[in-house]
Amino acid sequence: MQVGARKMVVLGTGGTIAGTASDGADNIGYKAGQVGVQQLLGAVPGLARVAGGELVAEQVAQLDSKDMDFGVWLRLAQRCQAHLADPQVQGIVITHGTDTLEETAWFLRLVLEASKPVVLTCAMRPATALAPDGPQNLLDAFAVAATPGARGVVAVAAGVLHGAAQVRKVHPYRVDAFDSGDAGPLGWVEEGRVRLARDWPDAAAVYPGALAWLAEPAAAWPRVEVVMSHAGASGRLVDLLVADGIDGLAVAATGNGTLHQDLEAALLRAQAAGVRVRVTSRCALGRVLPRPGDALVADEAGLGAVKLRVSLLLELLAARKG
Ligand code: SIN
Fold first, then answer.
1. Strands 117-121, 54-63: parallel, antiparallel or unpaired by DSSP?
2. Which residue, judged by its Cα, is nearest atom 7 of ligand 1?
3. Intra-chain end-to-end CA distance of the chain, in Å
4. Is 254 a residue of the active site?
5. Which of 35, 60, 66 to mutate to test the pocket of ligand 1 (most atoms within 8 A of CB)?
6. Is 104 in the pocket of ligand 1 (CB under 6 A)?
7. What pTM was computed for the model?
8. Ordered structural domains, the chain, with CATH
């Protein structure tokens, strides 16, 4: 927290945390993104006390995060950037759907200078549930954002703090739906206090110029798709994507980056045609260990396919800008 900073910013994007169902016992038949962020905050006693100063809420979007798109990402990152530059702001909390939270977190990690905390939070139960998890998650996110020395893009859910690089949704129903894989959590939030397992993530943007490039009126995002290797895989989909003008492919390979021979042949054709191809493992844990002579570049960071796709988007964009 910056000395003297008195403002906490909350950016609403929708999700189950803002979802409503007609029956309090219904935890799956709800509509995400219905309750405004101001109303969400009003439902949690004690938030203002944790924030310790002015509370600023903005509705950046109101959607089910399965429908997340580049426009919302850009708007969200721009609002974060503007608030981070305000010396009065101590931290930012983002309410988000669980389904693509890890992709948004990774995108923000790549483009923001986050010397203050940017904390994503969410819920697995709608706001109307008999036992909604959103209010406690919000309170925990505020506790993280108000912690002296906190920085970087992080996520908090079910009392567990995750770094943007590691966080993954691993369960479609359980309230404790996120995991940080082999690395383990960044920490925990217990009764309003953060207990760190390791240091806060790096604050520096990986692509510092990216937001300015993306804000250019004619800017078009690169086209990157995810393909998966599996029993019976062919190269047909890859060939069709190349013919359609794809820029990049993030490949979820088997095991340690192995590929069905027919898919591999098509990926090598794609790469020879100028498509940027990156390979990760479809295994839930670990990372691909590259072998000498590999013709396709491996995801040694163990990001997994959806985050690798986000990295590739930024990598292509940076290459375009020279
Ligand atoms: C969403 O991702 O917006 C809906 C699902 C959820 O938040 O759990």
1. unpaired
2. 97
3. 35
4. no
5. 66
6. no
7. 0.97
8. 7-196 (3.40.50.1170), 222-320 (3.40.50.40)
